[in-house]
Amino acid sequence: MERFAKGKRSIVYKEGNTIIKVEREETKAKGCLKNEARWLRILNTHHIGPRLLKHRGLKVYLEYIDGPPLVVWARTAEKHQLKKVLIALLRQCRTMDKLHVTKEEMHRPVKHALIRDNTVVLIDFERCRTTERPKNVTQVCQFLAHQFHIPGILAKAQSYKKTYTE
User: Fold this and answer.
1) The predicted structure's pLDDT at residue 27
2) Distance (Å, rounded) from C-alpha 105 to C-alpha 96?
3) Which of 2, 6, 35, 62 is the S-S candidate for 50 at Cβ 3.0 to 4.6 Å?
4) CA distance 100 to 129
5) CA distance 28 to 130
6) Distance between CA atoms of residues 100 and 97, nearest Å
7) In which residue ranges of the chain is pLDDT below 70?
8) What is the spatial distance between Cα 34 and Cα 27, in angstroms, rounded to a whole number?
9) Who's near 65: CB < 8 A, 6+ residues apart?
């Protein structure tokens, strides 16, 4: 088992095609991996996130997503591929909004949106929570406006925020 990454709430190990997240003892966010496992059980049924393999105590076992972050992948992607992936990202965010789930950190999905086989996979659901006013779509639109300079997207996001309609 090799150490793969270290975050604020967990240490991430990789073993073959499995990611093992272990809650850090010093984290103030106790139960964050239990929360991630809970949400992945729900979101996996909507084809969102890496596949949850199991949750045992302070460890979560996930499918390893082998792919670059969205912004790195986008540098060399063809325009039609990029459009397809960005639409898929917005659809996943819309699904989470309809479930009244806020993933958090979607305004900067630099590390949390990986591309595998020209499809987007969101990762890191430790901070996921239920809310009456979800903000996944609007946060991603803010990111897209600044990262990809998509004209009019912020106005559409503001309109969406008022009604949450398609």
Assistant:
1) 62
2) 13
3) 62
4) 8
5) 20
6) 5
7) 27-29
8) 14
9) 19, 50, 114, 116, 121, 123
